[in-house]
Amino acid sequence: MLQRLKLIIATGVTLLTTGALAADTQNCLQAYTAGKKAQAFQKCHPLAKEGDPQAAFILARLYALGVDGKAPDWEKVVEWLRLSSAANHAEAAYNLAIAYQKGKGTAADPQQSLKYYRQSSELGNPKAMRNLAMLYEKGKGVDQDIGQAFTLYQRSAESGLTDSQLKAGLMLLQGEGVEKDPVAARRWIEKSADAGNDNAQLALGVLLIDFDPETAIHWYAKAAAAGNPYAAHNLALVYSEGQNTPQDLYQALTYARTSLKLGNRETQPLFDRIQARIEAQDARQQSVKTGPEKAGDETDKSLAIADFKGLDWLKAQPPEHFVIQLARLTTPEGAHRFIRDFNLEPIARPVKLGQDDYVILTRDSFVVKADAHNILKAQLPTALAGEAWVRSYRSLYKH
């Protein structure tokens, strides 16, 4: 009877102690979450010293922020991350892996980094799965294994990490580390895009523009609104060329300007080209107001000079010779307008490749590709050169 009573008392004390520790840990977490660093340190430090993994992790975070107004102490960060990781704290193991990978607070050690990424992954951390997948994909610190990389990316994706969802989708699309599966690929990419990943939204725009332009433009617009400069650039292209949507040069200019503001300097030639076309268009409209008959004569002359060639003509050209493609458009009116806007009648001609498919090619062709590139750089206006493409005649009709 006495022995049983002792057992009951011991159990009660244990439960009281466990409850008190849980309350202390909760107080530690609440102080940290509230941004009260000094109070969090006071509440978490004793618990961390007793081996509480959550308190030790919070203490590591506090040392990373700087305690008592001091600079971050990265060695202390690593010290407490080690203690927390030893008690299987997934986020601590992930952060410790990064510390070993970057050599921050400790000497860089790829094998230790790999060890802690694996530990964190096994504990279910999707970010650790993603980083471990990257190591397998690139063969850094471990033998390259694309199949294992895909498996880890997919596990991370299933846990909800949006960049892993995009990566898994792209690998399924390309058949990297897994059999190609366009349906599954699109499902993962859409899942990532729906969650707000602007790179996934950009990817959907690229994938869909040729057969579902309305949906593609929707995703491009969402990505651009989220600050993706490449989506803004692609929208500028779509609206400037009337590619699968009515041409709108002012809308195109707006998106080109957005892309530039977001830091994509490669958009500058496109911006210049669109601006030049708007200026030419405005000047032409003014000319119509002041001299409609003369303007009409010039338009008729321009249309007459820019006679279309077709596939038969194209296939009659030396297939290995090179030509400069200046633009690709979807309407004959757009092709005529492009030639007229840039005064290209002496050097360029429109060619109809198929239904709603027109290209503007230089009249001259080249035996040596480098010669075409030299002409492109030296003689074409910057607004055109940035978007021009040197290609063989054969490539225009062989797909």
Q: Could you give a quick summary of the protein structure above?
A:
The protein has 399 residues and is an alpha+beta fold.
Q: What descriptors fit this protein?
A:
single chain; 399 residues; alpha+beta; Serine Threonine Protein Phosphatase 5, Tetratricopeptide repeat; Alpha-Beta Plaits; 6% strand
Whole-angstrom Rg: 31 Å
- What is the N-to-C order of secondary-structure elements (H for helix, E for strand)? HHHHHHHHHHHHHHHHHEHEEHHE
Strand content: 5-15%
What coarse outline follows from CA principal-axis ratios?
Answer: elongated
Helix content: 55-70%
Mean pLDDT: 86
Distance between the termini: 91 Å
Secondary structure tally, helices: 20
Describe the structure.
The chain has 399 residues and is α+β, with helices and mostly antiparallel strands. The protein has helices at residues 2-33, 37-49, 53-65, 74-86, 90-102, 110-122, 126-138, 146-158, 162-174, 182-194, 198-208, 213-225, 229-241, 249-261, 268-290, 292-305, 311-315, 332-341, 369-379, 382-385, and strands at 322-329, 348-354, 357-362, 389-392. It folds into 3 domains: 29-202, Alpha Horseshoe (Serine Threonine Protein Phosphatase 5, Tetratricopeptide repeat); 203-281, Serine Threonine Protein Phosphatase 5, Tetratricopeptide repeat (Alpha Horseshoe), CATH 1.25.40; 306-396, Alpha-Beta Plaits, CATH 3.30.70. It has a 4-stranded antiparallel β-sheet with strand order 2-3-1-4, covered by helices on one side. Helix 8 crosses helix 9. Mean pLDDT is 86; it is low at 9-18, 293-297 and 299-306.
